[in-house]
Specification:
One of its GO terms (biological process) is transmembrane transport. With about 300 residues, the protein is mainly alpha-helical. About 70% of the residues lie in helices and about 0% in strands. It is built from 13 helices and two strands; from the N terminus they run αααββαααααααααα. It has a two-stranded antiparallel sheet.
């Protein structure tokens, strides 16, 4: 005979049973291994940044000296004089524009694919993921001819191609979010009389907000760090930060300038990543809990 458990009541397992099965047995070795692996990964990703930070405040660093032989901010001054701030601003705007367009499009496509509202979903999924399988320069060279014949302005053409490149990331991220999404919350809100706009704003968006944040972050990275599409399609009319880094890196004696521009290119994604982690912790901690349906009208059961 099945035992009925009231909803919301927590089940406390028998400590003797769990201890005998080893479920609550401490595993210090496994924790040490995880901490060690995390530290090695952090060191692996942080190590390339150290020379950039040193070069950004060095005027001269000759071999075999372990440290710069002359400290200074000539690299920063040259980066500012060569249009580093406008290029930084264009990259920010381009990344935000790509995120603003690709995120809702990816969410709509992922919702339709997840809940079976698209005919031939495997074919549609393959088309949406195709930009990941094709080399970037191949797709760009083919589409550039089409865009030129259609007389699309260079900036809009770059934006369209970057949105297409970001869609696989937003669609995949939102499909994972919608796979764990319980649509019954929306149906219950509609049953209680909420409008579609109210359900979208008060029920749907708060529930999928973490997935939308992750998708927007990935889409921003696509627009922020792009070089191939901007240089081939933009044709020099849209000078972003990656183009400026590439131009100085192609020359000789520009190590300090390249270091300053590279360090500035790390800052926005790092800040967004920290904000995303803080947002995820707040959501998991219950501060952004899903809204409960409104009270039923009088006379309703």
């Amino acid at each position: 005979m099945a035992m009925m458990i009231p909803y919301g009541q927590r089940i406390t397992p028998d400590p003797r049973t769990t201890r005998s099965r080893g479920l609550m047995r401490p595993r210090p070795v496994g924790r040490i291994v995880r901490i060690g692996v995390a530290a090695l990964l952090a060191l692996w990703f942080a190590l390339p940044v150290v020379p950039l930070l040193i070069w950004s405040v060095a005027n001269r660093w000759s071999f075999p000296s372990p440290l710069p032989t002359e400290w200074g901010f000539d690299g920063l001054a040259q980066a500012l004089a060569q249009g580093g701030v406008p290029a930084f601003g264009r990259s920010i705007l381009l990344g935000l524009a790509v995120a603003a367009i690709a995120t809702p499009l990816g969410a709509l496509a992922a919702r339709a694919l997840t809940f079976g509202r698209v005919p031939a979903p495997r074919l549609v999924s393959g088309i949406l993921l195709a930009p990941l399988a094709l080399p970037a320069f191949v797709a760009v060279m083919g589409l550039t001819i089409v865009l030129l014949r259609a007389r699309v302005p260079a900036t809009i053409a770059v934006l369209l191609l970057l949105v297409a490149a970001a869609l696989p990331y937003t669609v995949y991220t939102m499909r994972v979010a919608y796979a764990a999404h319980d649509i019954a919350f929306e149906e219950e809100a509609r049953t209680l009389g909420a409008s579609r706009a109210h359900v979208l704003a008060r029920v749907h968006l708060p529930l999928v907000a973490p997935g939308l944040a992750r998708a927007a972050f990935l889409a921003f990275l696509v627009g922020w760090s792009d070089y191939v599409v901007t240089v081939l399609v933009g044709g020099g009319t849209l000078v972003t930060l990656p183009l400026l880094v590439g131009a100085f890196a192609a020359g000789v004696g520009n190590d300090a300038v390249v270091a300053v521009l590279s360090v500035s290119a790390i800052i926005p994604p790092l800040l967004l990543l920290l904000a995303l982690g803080r947002f995820g912790r707040r959501y998991a901690g219950g501060r952004l809990a899903a809204p409960t349906p409104s009270r039923s009208p009088k006379g309703s059961p």
